[in-house]
Amino acid sequence: MNPRPSRDVVRRAPKVLLHDHLDGGLRPATVLELAREVGHELPADDAESLGRWFAESADSGSLVRYLETFDHTVGVMQTAPALTRVARECVEDLAADGVVYAEIRYAPEQHVTNGLTLDEVVAAVQEGFDQGVEAAGGTIVVRQLLTAMRHAARSMEIAQLAVSWRDRGVAGFDIAGAEAGFPPTRHLDAFEYLQRENFHFTIHAGEAFGLPSIWQAIQWCGADRLGHGVRIIDDITVHDGGKVELGLLASYVRDKRIPLEMAPASNVQTGAAPSIAEHPIGLLTKLRFRVTVNTDNRLMSQTSMTSEMHALVEAFDYGLDDLRWFTINAMKSAFLPFDERLAIIDGVIKPGYAELAAR
Ligand SMILES: O=c1[nH]cnc2c1ncn2[C@H]1C[C@H](O)[C@@H](CO)O1
Ligand SMILES: [Zn+2]
């Protein structure tokens, strides 16, 4: 019998975060202060109401409407000091939440409105991450993932930018934005370039669109991981009597151990899952897919790694062993060199869970 860990135990457990958007994780008070500095108009004028506005507006059941809220975060992240501050606070908040390794993504092309170059954007974010890691006393390791927007046409440029920063803090590439109507194959040249460069990438797929999007991401584009991938459930049939049948794509994803970057709270907000309790993560975990737990956008979902994991504990009766399994899954799937992944698993994650289990 697995005793349910309390929220405080979940907070103290080492956690790994692979899917978190820099422009989706600002502190409401920071959005307010930065907006005042640049004269950006916001829909609320105190931190509490603004936090509520983000959560309620994102709670629309539609990915497209969810994404509209980012106008107010991206709008205040257009200078190097603002990007550095947001990046530093991101690391501080994650470290305080018990995250020991994080890959944080954002789209550099969205931060050049006031004249920064793409390179200056990445440098400003890296400066903030370095400051945050130092402030956290080195208890967390952080890498950048550079995202290209799927409706735009800058993916090749962003892929080249990511590769040029590969030894300076950037570990991978991603595409994000509205999914329906913007298949990943539009960016095939970028993905082929990244493969030739032996670089890593993940693709948001199977969130607002179904199996064809996942199939393209894996079989045409060669994605190492899937952002969300929730709709893989459409290729799984549970028969009366409990027998489970996997279609060819679902079998492939499980056989190849392709990591699913699941973010339950976000998935409920965008309508990709009806509720946490009915989230496909329950069945996919039972079937031993390579499931990982993520926050996606901490501001829009008013969430954290602790909240996500604790919500799963309550919905599915998970114990510390399950949380450790999610965490090791995530660390195994990180875009960090193998020896560094192993060092965090053996040196931080396993001892951290062993200590909690011994209490
Ligand atoms: O869950 C998501 N699906 C698709 N796109 C997303 C999601 N969360 C954030 N984004 C977009 C909005 C951001 O401005 C962009 C880069 O972080 O990525
Ligand atoms: Zn995302």
Over all CA atoms, what is the radius of gyration? Answer: 19 Å
State the secondary-structure class: alpha/beta
Query: So what's the overall shape?
Result: globular
CATH architecture type = Alpha-Beta Barrel
- What name does CATH use for the topology? TIM Barrel
Q: What spatial order of strands do you see in the largest sheet? A: 1-2-3-4-5-6-9-10
Strand runs, count: 10
Q: What is the number of domains?
A: 1
CATH class: Alpha Beta
Average per-residue pLDDT, rounded, comes to 97
- Which ligands appear in the coordinates? 2'-deoxyinosine, zinc ion
Succession of helices and strands = HEHHHHHEHEHEHEHEEEHEHHEHHH
Describe this structure in words.
This protein is an alpha/beta fold and 359 residues long. The chain has one domain: Metal-dependent hydrolases (TIM Barrel, Alpha-Beta Barrel). 47% of the residues lie in helices and 14% in strands. The protein contains 16 helices and ten strands. α2 packs across α3. It is globular. 48% of the residues are buried. The mean pLDDT is 97. Bound molecules: 2'-deoxyinosine and zinc ion. The site of zinc ion has 6 residues, from β1. Its cofactor is Zn(2+). It catalyses: adenosine + H2O + H(+) = inosine + NH4(+); 2'-deoxyadenosine + H2O + H(+) = 2'-deoxyinosine + NH4(+). One of its GO terms (biological process) is hypoxanthine salvage. Keywords: Hydrolase, Metal-binding, Nucleotide metabolism, Zinc.
Helix and strand topology:
Elements: H1 7-12, E1 15-21, H2 28-38, H3 47-58, H4 63-68, H5 71-74, H6 80-96, E2 99-106, H7 118-135, E3 141-149, H8 155-164, E4 170-176, H9 188-196, E5 201-205, H10 211-220, E6 225-228, E7 236-238, E8 244-246, H11 248-255, E9 260-262, H12 264-269, H13 281-286, E10 291-293, H14 305-316, H15 320-333, H16 338-357
Helix pairs in contact: 2-3, 6-7, 8-9, 15-16
The structure holds 2'-deoxyinosine (2ND) and zinc ion.
The site of zinc ion (ZN) has 6 residues, from β1.
Family: Belongs to the metallo-dependent hydrolases superfamily. Adenosine and AMP deaminases family. Adenosine deaminase subfamily.
Organism: Nocardioides guangzhouensis
Site (Important for catalytic activity): 228
